[in-house]
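[Help] Beginner question about ligand-bound structures

Sorry if this is basic. My supervisor gave me a protein sequence and a SMILES string for S-adenosylmethionine and asked me to "get the holo structure". I don't really know what that means in practice or what format the answer should be in. Inputs are pasted below exactly as I got them.
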Amino acid sequence: MKKVSDILSFFLKELNGYYPEKEIKSLFYISIDHLLGYSKSDTIIKSENELLPDFKIEFSEIVERLQKKEPIQYILMETTFYGLPFFTRRGVLIPRPETEELVDWIIKDNENLEKRYLDIGTGSACIIISLTKNLNGSFYAIDVSPDALREAKQNVKRNNVDVNLEQFDILDSDLDGLWDVIVSNPPYVLESERKYMQQNVLAWEPKIALFVRDETPLLFYERIADQSTKVLNKNGILYFEINEKYGKETVDMLAQKGFVNIELKKDINDKDRMVKAMWK
Ligand SMILES: C[S@@+](CC[C@H](N)C(=O)[O-])C[C@H]1O[C@@H](n2cnc3c(N)ncnc32)[C@H](O)[C@@H]1O
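Answer (accepted):
No worries, everyone starts somewhere. Holo just means with the ligand present. The predicted complex, written as structure tokens, is below.
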């Protein structure tokens, strides 16, 4: 690797067989943007620029870690979510594009209103920070994981927002306060779905953020719905991200508990992914 143009060939050669070619190119563009601040067109315009030795080492390290299927977001320790920058470290779930769709739904529903928001299982705090940046009101978030709370705190600081964070086990403690909007993207992958998951998720991302037992797929949803009946204001709204397999069950469960105006929404891949419900 002597010039900028050599980096792509290096990625393609060293990662051949580990990822499809299209993905290797995308990993290359993410890496060169992160390390050199180059856009796609910069990589063409500056293709003959000489590569400094430090960068050669850094690109080689990235490739080595990619060969171990480590997610690029953990390697670079950051990602973008809803147009905002987030730190991403091992031990905390990497924010997903589906969750951006949930955030978008909440923002469109609540524009220009002053509300109290609570995010349950906040992880990197990607949901609550995006809401804080785009809506008015007060913003709270809880998570059981100390790693998640540490990262959430750093992300709150990085995005210069005001979010109250608290360590809290939603399965073990009762919520208090009064809320207009409660949102949660809780663990929803079944243990039996492990075998269909990619190695870069399974080996690297925290189990506590992902899995529930097959016997209790709606464990978090039922608990959060029960708690919400006690702490949601009249006309308060509950938003969930869900496992695509459980759209109907989630809707039925919410109806049974007395929620109204229940809506199930698909994601961009046409999978049942989000539910909202109102508390009367
Ligand atoms: C699917 S991740 C969602 C993270 C983040 N909200 C997002 O959308 O990227 C689920 C989160 O729930 C948290 N969690 C798991 N069990 C919990 C519990 N009993 N009480 C509170 N949070 C919990 C995990 O630590 C994890 O951060």
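A couple of things worth pointing out: The mean pLDDT is 97. The chain has two domains: 4-68, 89-279. Feel free to follow up in the thread.
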